[in-house]
Specification:
Elements: H1 3-14, H2 21-31, H3 37-49, E1 54-57, E2 63-66, E3 73-77, E4 83-86, H4 91-99, E5 109-112, H5 115-123
Parallel strand pairs: 3-5
Antiparallel strand pairs: 1-2, 3-4
Helix pairs in contact: 1-2, 1-3, 2-3
C-alpha cells in the first residue's frame, strides 16, 4: 500500500462517522501538503475495490465513505445531513423471500431525524 493510500485510510479509521472526499482531502493535506484531490479520489476508489472501506451513495448525489465494512444499514438526518449506522439484522434473507430473487448485496438508507436534531427541536 502506498504512503498516500495509507494516509487516506488512516483518516477514515480515525474519524468519528462518515466523511465526504473533500473532508478526507482537507485532513490528509495537513500531513501531506502536496496531496491533490484527484489522488484522494483515486485512493478512495482503490480502497473500496480492495474491500477496506465502503462508499455510501446518497440520493442527492453526495458520496460518503465508511470505515465499517461489515454489513449494516444507514440513516440520514433530514435536518442536518448526519449519517448514522444502523444494525437491522439480516434483511437480505427477508428481501429474498419476498422477491424470490437471490439478494447478492443491498444498500439501505433510512431518512430520519437524528437524536441531536430531535433534542434541539424539543428545546426550541
Amino acid at each position: 500500500m502506498t504512503v498516500k493510500r495509507a494516509a487516506v485510510l488512516q483518516v477514515l479509521q480515525e474519524s468519528q462517522g462518515h466523511l465526504q472526499p473533500d473532508e478526507i482531502f482537507r485532513r490528509v493535506r495537513e500531513k501531506y501538503p502536496g496531496m491533490v484531490l484527484a489522488t484522494v479520489y483515486n485512493n478512495l476508489h482503490a480502497l473500496c475495490e480492495a474491500g477496506l472501506i465502503r462508499r455510501i451513495r446518497t440520493a442527492d448525489g453526495a458520496d460518503y465513505y465508511d470505515k465499517t465494512i461489515t454489513p449494516h444499514e444507514h440513516a440520514i438526518c433530514t435536518h442536518c445531513g448526519k449519517i448514522l449506522d444502523l444494525q437491522l439484522g439480516n434483511l437480505a434473507a427477508g428481501f429474498a423471500r419476498k422477491t424470490d430473487l437471490p439478494i447478492l448485496a443491498y444498500d439501505l438508507i433510512v431518512h430520519t431525524v437524528c437524536p441531536d436534531c430531535l433534542m434541539q427541536k424539543k428545546q426550541a
